[in-house]
Amino acid sequence: MDYQALYSQKLTTAENAAAVVKSGDWVDYGWCVGTPDVIDQALAKRLPELHDVNFRGGVLLRTPAVYQIENPADHMTWNSWHMSGIERKFIATGAGFYGPMRYSELPRFYRDHIRHVDVAFLQVAPMDSHGFFSFGPQASHLRAICDVAEKIYVEVNQNMPRCLGGMEDCIHISEVTGIVEGNNAPMPEMGSIPATEVDRKVAELIVPEIPNGACLQLGIGGMPNTIGALIADSDLKDLGVHTEMYVDAFVDISKAGKITGRYKDVDRGRQAFAFAAGTQKLYDFLNDNPECASVPVDYTNDVRIIAGIDNFISINNAVDVDLYGQVNAESAGIKQISGTGGQLDFVMGAYLSKGGKSFICLSSTFKQKDGTMASRIRPTLSNASIVTDPRTTAHYIVTEYGMVCLKGRSTWERAEDLISIAHPDFRDELVAEAEKMHIWKRSNKR
Fold it and tell me: Is 433 annotated as catalytic?
C-alpha cells in the first residue's frame, strides 16, 4: 500500500472536519495533551449554529475554543473523565459535568457501555513509514474510542512526541476518516508546583520506606514531585516505573541513573505509563525512547498486574482524611476538584504486591477562603465529599507530622493514629469529636 498516496487522499481541512459534527452528536476530544487544536478552533466557529453537542475529554491543559463561544451551555456539554483546574470552572456555567469512574475501567466503558461515538478528533504525531500515527503520550483509552467511533479525524502535530509501546499506542492510516495538518503548536506544558517545607517533610518520611529495586507510581502534584526529586538525590538504585501518569519527576530520576527496571516482574527494563504531561524535557525524553512504554490504562491500572510486581510503591495526594481512614482525593463537598482516576487501583494493587506499600500524602492543614486554617484530618468527611479510597483500603497516611499505617487497626486505634499526625492545634478538637463518635478510649494518649 502506498501510504503517502493514501495520506494525500485523506488530507482535509480543519473546517471540513468540523463540518461533519451535527446537533446531538457525541464528540470525543482526545485526552490531556492530545486534545485537538486547529479542529477545535474551526468547530468553535460552527458551534453557535448547533445545539446539544456532547464532548468527552479530560485533564485539559488549555481552555478549548469550543468553550470560549458566547453562552457555551446553549450549544454544548463538556463531559470530563478527570477534571483539571480549567474544567472545574465549566461546572458552574452549566456546560460541564464529571463522569465518575475508576480510570482502569475507561476502555471497557467505551467498548461495552458507550459503544458508539459519532466523531473522534485526536491530535497525533506524524505518520511513520508503516502508516501509523502515534497517539503521543496518551495511549490511555484512545484505541477504545477508535474502536467504537463512526468517524475518526487525526490532527497531526510535528511537535507531538512519538511514544513507543507496542500495545494500543497508535492508529493506522487505513482506519482514519480524515487527516488535518495542525499548526504545529508547542506541546502544552504542566510545570511542577514549587516544593513547600511541608512537601519536603512528607518526602523525607516516605523515601526511607522505598527499597532498592522497587517499582514506582507517582501521582500528580507538589508532594509526589518533591518525593521524586528526593529519590533522584538518594542512594536508591535499580528502580522500576509502572504508573498511570508519567511526570517530570520520573525524567529526573531516570537521568540520575536510578531507574533500570532490572527487577520488574512485568515489562522488565521498561517504564510503563498510560499518559504523560509535564515540561518540554519530559516530551523530549519520551520521544522515540524504547525505555518507555506508552500503554492503555486498563493495563497500567489493572490491580492484578500491579499486584504481580514485587515491592510496588504507590504515592498519591489527598484532599482530606477522616478518623475512620476514609480518603477523599477528588472533591470539596459537592465541588468536584479532579476525579477518582487511578488512585484506588494503585492503593489496592500496591497492597497486594509482595512488599508493596501505598502512601496517601497530605498537608495537615489548609487555608480557607476567609484566611483561617482548617485541618485536613477531619472527624468525618464533609457532607457530600467523595470517598475515593474506602477505609478498608487505606495503608499509610502521611502528613508533615508523621506517618501511620492503618492496616490491622480498629476504629479507636485509627482515630488515635490519625490524630497523632494532625496539626497540634486541632488535636484536642479531634479527640473531643472522636469521643462523641464512640471511637475514642479513655486510655488513649491525649
Answer: no
